[in-house]
Design a protein that fits this description.
By secondary structure, the protein is an all-alpha fold. It contains 6 helices and 2 strands. It has 2 domains: about 55 residues, Multidrug-efflux Transporter Regulator, Chain: A, Domain 2 (Orthogonal Bundle), CATH 1.10.1660.10; about 55 residues. About 60% of the residues lie in helices and about 5% in strands. The termini are far apart.
């Protein structure tokens, strides 16, 4: 059995986050010791590692909840998990494209600013007037 501190250290997850995941049902509420301390089984460590890795990949909590549900039902079709991953990949690619547009615009704004005073600063003017941007971002 693991304490919440042990679980935190072994997974790299902050204690408030572990409690939050319990609260929203991503990990099961653990047994309690006679002193009312949380005592986690190895299965909680495995589940939290799963959740942590999924979060590191940017999966939203609802998708993680669906993947957990699928993992608890080994006879379910794998296509459901693939669909979740493919959907997340599509949204990630859209975010990457948006970030590239942002990078291009920020590079342009920052590179043309050679003013000595804020009153003449292109960065400030561009942020105040979206019409000065070259593209939609």
């Amino acid at each position: 059995m693991l304490s919440i501190g042990d679980l935190s250290r072994r997974t790299g997850t902050k204690i408030p986050t572990i409690r939050y995941y319990e609260q929203i049902g991503l990990i099961e509420a653990p047994e309690r010791s006679p002193g009312n301390q949380r005592r986690y089984a190895k299965s909680a460590l495995e589940r939290l590692s799963f959740v942590r890795h999924a979060r590191a990949l940017g999966l939203p909590l609802d998708a993680i909840r669906d993947l957990i549900r699928l993992s608890e039902n080994p006879a379910m079709p794998c296509s459901d998990a693939h669909e979740i991953a493919a959907s997340h990949l599509t949204s990630t690619r859209k975010r990457i494209a948006q970030l590239r547009r942002l990078e291009k615009e920020l590079t342009r704004i920052a590179s043309v600013c050679d003013a000595d005073q804020i009153g003449d600063c292109n960065v400030i003017r561009a942020l105040a007037d979206h019409e000065l941007c070259e593209s939609e971002h």
